[in-house]
Design goal:
With about 200 residues, the chain is of the alpha/beta class. It has a single domain, classed as Rossmann fold (3-Layer(aba) Sandwich), CATH 3.40.50. The chain is built from 5 helices and 6 strands. Strands 3-2-1-4-5-6 form a 6-stranded parallel beta sheet, sandwiched between helices. Helix 4 links the parallel strand 5 and strand 6. Helix 1 runs parallel beside helix 5. The longest helix is centred in the N-terminal third of the chain and has 15 residues. It starts with 5 loop residues before the first strand and ends with a helix. The mean pLDDT is about 95.
Length: about 200
């Protein structure tokens, strides 16, 4: 790994996807401590960090009120759209908003956001990725990153599934592996970052 070309992508760790939110993921908040550790490691190394967030208008197509499958969630400017309060957001991190077109669904952080171009401008060719949820926004972001030619390492301890159907999370991991992603943990990734600086 060339550290100057690695980036961290944290996907949708927002209040509405955590326990107590409008679309809660079981144990979704448990990803925060591990994410904070790797966020700190990337910050210490001066490597780029990106956070995606659902940033939906109130009439978004994905909502049940608009014929979609989900309850209203992560509506622009609401408390539910905020990042988890314990999630560390470094001053230099980039916030990528997605799903802000009311007529288009956007699970992937690459869909309609310009994220790929920003990563390329930063010289990134390897992405470490964690967040919510394994079977939707994490999976789609990983697959799009691989489609764009990036090497992707999925942080297994930093993701949680919705599991609308039992096993969706496990099936999503298989799809990500099939797309060419690799699985790792935040601890393993931090060790690798440290070893490249010695």
């Amino acid at each position: 790994m060339t550290p100057s070309r690695a980036a961290l992508l944290v996907v949708d760790v927002q209040r509405d996807f955590c326990p107590g939110g409008a679309l809660p993921v079981e144990r979704g908040d448990e990803v925060v401590p591990a994410l904070n550790r790797i966020i700190g490691a990337f910050e210490d190394q001066g490597l780029p960090i990106f956070f995606t967030r659902d940033w939906h208008p109130s009439n978004h197509i994905s909502f049940k009120t608009g014929g979609g499958p989900w309850p209203p969630h992560c509506v622009q400017g609401t408390r539910g759209a905020e990042f988890h309060p314990d999630l560390r957001i470094p001053p230099g991190a980039k916030i990528i908003s997605k799903g802000n077109n009311p007529k288009l669904e956007a699970y992937s952080g690459f869909q309609g956001t310009g994220l790929e171009a920003r990563l390329r401008r930063a010289g990134v060719d390897e992405i470490f990725l964690g967040g919510l949820t394994t079977d939707y926004c994490v999976k789609e972001s990983v697959i799009d990153a691989r489609r764009g030619g990036f090497s992707v390492e999925v942080l297994q301890d930093c993701i949680r599934p919705v599991d609308v159907k039992r096993g969706d999370g496990a099936r999503a991991l298989k799809e990500m592996l099939k797309a060419g992603a690799k699985l790792t943990t935040s601890s393993e990734a931090i060790k690798r970052l440290a070893s490249t600086q010695q």
